[in-house]
Prior knowledge:
The chain has eight helices and nine strands. Helices cover about 30% and strands about 25% of the residues. The protein has two domains: about 5-240, BirA Bifunctional Protein, domain 2, CATH 3.30.930; about 245-285, no CATH class. By secondary structure, it is of the alpha+beta class. The model has no long low-confidence stretch (mean pLDDT about 95). Helix 3 (about 100-115) crosses helix 4.
Amino acid sequence: MVSSLSGAQIRQTFLDFFAARGHKILPSASLVPEDPTVLLTIAGMLPFKPIFLGQKEAEVPRATTSQKCIRTNDIENVGRTARHHTFFEMLGNFSFGDYFKEQAIAYAWELSTKVFGLPPERVVVSVFEEDDEAFAIWRDRVGVPVARIKRMGADDNFWVSGPTGPCGPCSELYYDFHPERGEDNIDLEDDTRFIEFYNLVFMQYNRDAEGNLTPLQNKNIDTGLGLERMAQILQQVPNNYETDLIYPIIKTAADLAGMDYFKSDEKTKVSLKVIGDHVRSVVHM
């Protein structure tokens, strides 16, 4: 595992990987989108929504970005879990009617295990329960053991951008912090053992207000790899907050308050983590 990478190096490694494979590197879009259905940019795919819906022509068939995002739906969990934030960066690779499931899965596996060096035996994947094609690709083309491929329901593995809009089944990659616990009872909801770090969305439907699905003009790929989560894994720290992306802010706040983060009680640590998270959001807004 490549454990010496900084957050900035992880970001650049991701972008370089996909640029070398025909993806155009595009800048992060504004946190305030031109989309009346959302208040803030909540995902890397949002700037490309008109392309997915066929309302706008794609200038390139493949793109890659590091998109700054803000989500407020998890605000009560900020600082209390290892992975929830209001501000985060979503690294993404996108295909607009070009490649689809097989290539997206192959890229994700190569990047995760060959480039970032994650041990294959520590990666567990999930697929939508009805997506036999994705299941077969992981099993037969990539070689992931069946015990480490989990079928999950729509709440977990059918991605939607909102009540209406582009959507599709997805496949997620999880890192296993405790492989010694075995493969007999893998529970991907156990966030003491697993962290989901890469989501591959097979964007092929549009959902209307009644919940009806109609096929999009093209079969597209929309992915998101959490920069903070990959930094936690590669830097081998217990949570996202102790990565080099956030901890310098926490340390500055602790120094100003005359305290040591690592010697503080849990309540104080939560408060310092909240400061670290919210400062990032305020600065980028």
